[in-house]
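Tutorial handout. Part one gives the primary structure; part two gives the three-dimensional structure as tokens.
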Amino acid sequence: MTDSTSSPIDLHAWLGSTLSSPTYASHLTALSSHASLLTPPQPSIKPYPDSVYLNYPSLGLSCLFAPFEGYEPPKSAQAVSELDGEQLRLESVDVYNPSAEPTAKGKGKLPAFEPFAGLPYTFIPRAGSPPRPPFPITRSTTGKEFVLALGEPARKGGGGGPKAGNIGIWCEWSEEGVMVEFEAGEASVVQNWEKGGDKVWRVMTLFERGKSVR
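Part two.
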């Protein structure tokens, strides 16, 4: 369940916090409140040598942590208590906006993630002179609206048709620290890009401004 008003949560302010920090805990608590949960849910954990993913399906959220100071996350970790939270820094956040309609590929299965609990989300642009106005993102926000709000993306790709596995278009605004993946098309690459402006976003990744995730 999401609130009908824009979320006051700033996901960029969340980045850089450690797993054990009050900053991380307070953001997670705020998002859980938006989802009408009394306490934050326990995440599913996917540890790798150079990263750890904490997935919160009920919040529509996935957090990517990077170890530092030589820390190596245990490969068998299944709970937050098994991780050294002081040596894991939040590098990026994925938020989800799954389709309400089952796809042929999914064979009617429910999506792995619920819609992001912080929707509608107000994105505050930092690049540009003068800075662009705040941009409200909802479940129905399209590619055209992202471009109008943030300008032309610095990088983009995807859009492959059936032969390429119906890969959705993605656009990255590196200076704003955001990459967006849009719903997949089932036409040719050219046709998918021609219609890309009308495609609804499906995944939004927030990362440190000025960097890149691909």
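Part three, for discussion. The first strand starts at residue 44 and ends at 48. The beta strands are 44-48, 51-56, 61-67, 88-96, 121-123, 135-137, 155-157, 170-173, 178-182, 201-207.
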